[in-house]
Hints:
Layout: H1 5-23, H2 26-31, H3 52-75, H4 82-90, H5 94-109, H6 113-134, H7 137-148, H8 157-171, H9 179-207, E1 212-214, H10 224-236, E2 243-245, H11 249-258, H12 262-273, H13 284-300, H14 306-310, H15 319-352, H16 363-375, H17 379-382, H18 388-403, E3 406-409, E4 421-426, E5 432-439, E6 451-456, E7 459-460, E8 466-467, E9 470-474, H19 490-507, H20 528-534, H21 540-543, H22 558-567, H23 572-589, H24 599-606, H25 626-629, H26 639-657, H27 662-673, H28 681-689, H29 696-701
Parallel strand pairs: 5-9
Antiparallel strand pairs: 1-2, 3-4, 4-5, 6-9, 7-8
Amino acid sequence: MKKSIIAIFTFLSLCSGAIMAQTTTVAEQTANPLFKEFTGVHGTAPFSKINDSHWEAAIDRGIEIARQEIDAITRQRSMPDFENTIVALENTGEDLNRVLNVFFPLLSADSNDEMMEISMRASQKLSDYSTSIVLNEELWKRVKYVYEHRDLYNLDPEDSMLLQKTYDSFALSGANLQGKDREEFRKLQSELSALTTAFGQNVLRELNTYEVYLTADDLAGLPESSVVAAAEAAKAKGREGEYLFTLDQPVYMAFMKYSARPDLRERMYRLYCSRNTKGEYSNIENIGKIAELRRRIAALLGAPDYASHSLRRTMAEKPEAVYDLLDRLRDAYRPALDAEMAELAAFASEIEGHPVTINPWDYSYYSNKLKASKYSFDEEELRPYFELNNTIKGVFGLATKLYGLNFKENPDIEVYHPDVKAFDVSDADGRFIGVIYTDFFPRASKRPGAWMTGFRDQSISAEGVNTRPLVTIVMNFTKPTADKPSLLTPYEVETFLHEFGHALHGLLADTKYASMSGTGVYRDFVELPSQFNENYLTEKEFLDGFARHYKTGESIPQELVDRLVASSRYGAAYQCMRQLGFGYLDMGWHTVKAPVADPVAFERAATESVRIFPDVDGTMTSTTFSHIFSGGYAAGYYSYKWAEVLDADAFAFFKEHGIFDPVTAESFRRNVLSRGGTEHPAELYRRFRGQDPTIDALLIRDGIAKEKNVGVRDNHID
C-alpha cells in the first residue's frame, strides 16, 4: 500500500517524535525536495531543486522511517499472516527507495567528489540498516511462521514467489545466526559495503586522471572522427594544436583499432590495463579483502565458498553448473580460436613483410584489417548510416513493431543533465506505459560503460493503482563535433539495442510487487531481454527502417548489409573466449577457500585455460573488474554467456516465425518481459519457447557448428 507523506509524518510523530526532532527541523523538511513525494510530470524527480546537501539528510530520514515501519510490523499483536507481515515488509522503505532510486543512478551518471563522499557514508548506514532487518529476530519469527504455514493463505503464484524470496533473503542472509556469529556477520557486511564502494570510486577517479597528448605526427591510421574529437578535447584544455586522447571507452577502442603506431598502441594498452594497480587509487588490496570478506560471510552461512552461497538463487543454482557451461563453451570454441589466431598472425606477417607475433595491443588493429580484407568491411564505413537521432528512431521503432509501443519526447519532464532527454512511452491504445530517459555521451562526471537503471519501479497497489516505471539508459557514445553529428559504429548500435532491451524489461513490467518487477529477476536471466535485442543488428529488415546516410539520406546499401552480416561471425571464438575469461576469473575469486596471497598470480591461474595472449607484466583485470567487485555480479559474470545461450535460442524461435511476428512477440512480452521475477525463469522461458534452451542456436549463430551437427540432448543447459 502506498503511503502519503502526511501519513508517514503522523506515524513518526506518534511513535518517535524525539527522533524526528533530532534528525530534521521544520525548515529542513520544507527546503529539502527529497522529503516529499515528487510532483513532476508522471511523478518524476525535480533534479534542479536537489543539491548535494540534501542527500544525506534524506537518506538518514528514509532509514529512520523504514526502521519505524519495521517496528510497526514486529510490535503488532495480530498473528503473522501474508498481508500483515510479507506484504507489509515489501511496502516498507518507500521514502528511502524514492531517494536511493535517484541518488545511485546519479552517482554513476552525473557524480562529483562530494556525492562520492556521501555514498561512502551512506553505504555504511545502508549496510547496517539492511543487516538490522535480516538479523531482526522478531521479524524473522513472523516471516518464518508465515512461510511454514503458507498452505493456509491461498496464495497465487506471484504471492508465493514473494513469500519464497522473502524467506530466502532472510535465511541466506544470516537470520538463523546466533550470538557471536550474528555480530560477526553484521561486522563483515559493514566492512564489505565500504570496500565495494571504495573499489568503484577508485576506478572512476583514476580513469579521469589519464590524458595522453599527441602531435600530428602520431595520428597515422586514425579516422577523421577520432582526430577531430581529440583536437577539440585538447583545445578545451587550452592546448590547441595538440590532440588529447583519454581512456574513455569509445576513445580507447577507436585508438586501438585504427592507430598504425604499435608503440602508441602498446602505450595505451599498458595504461588501460594497469589501471588501479598502484598509487593512490590502487585496488590491489581491495580485491583480496573483498573476496576474503565474502568467503567468511559464506562460511558463516554454512556454504563452502561464496559462489555456492550466491548461486542458490539463480538458474544455475551451483558452481558445478556454471563451470560445466564455461567448460563446454571453452572446448567448443577453442579449435575455432586457434584457427582465428593462426590466420591473423599469417595475415599480419604478410602485410608487414616479416613474421609478426600478435600481442594484445595488436589484436584490434590487425583483426580490423583482416575483417576488412575478407569482407571489405570497416566499421567506420558504416558510421555515416548510424546517425544517433535516426538510430534512436530505429531502436525505439523496434519496440513499436514488436510490442506496439510509441515514444514521444516530453520537454516538460525535467532531466538531470543537458545531454539527457526524456520520452513518454505509450502502448498501441494510447495508455501510458512509463518514461525512458536517454543519456548518451561521455563526461567527467559519468563512469565508463553502458547500463540501464530506473528512478522508479513498476508496481500495483492493493487498491489496483498501477504505478508505472521511470527508466534510464546510459551510454558513452562518440559525441558530436562542431561540424559532424554523433555517428555510431555497429558496436555502439549493438550496445544501444542491449540497454534498450533492459529498458523494455522495466517498461513492460506488470506485477504487483516492485521488488519483482522488470529486471528484478534471477541474475542469469536478466540479460535475456537485452541480448535478445542485439540479434536485430544484422537483420536487413530492421536496418532498412532507419539506417540512412546522414548527408545524402541514402538507405544503407544491400551490399553493406551483406558485409555486416557476413562479418558478424568474424572473431566469434575470440570474443567468446574473452568473455569466458571474465567468467572463470569471477568464479575463481568466489570459490576460494582461503585468503589470496598473490592477486596477480591468482588471476593468471584462474584464466589459464582460456588465455589468448602471453601475460603482460604490470597489467591485470581484477583491479578494474567493477561488475564483480562493486557492481552486483559477484559469482555472476557467467550469466552473460548463460543468457547468450537463451537469447540465441529465443531468436532462433523468432526466425522460425518471422522476426517481427506479432504472435511470437506477444508471447515473449507476456511470458518474459512483463512477468519480472514472479515465477521461476525456467518456467517462464519454457512457457514462451515450448522447451528448454540448448546451446545449439548459439553455436550455429557463431559459425562454430552447422545445423546438421547439433541437436544433441547433452546441449541442454540446466
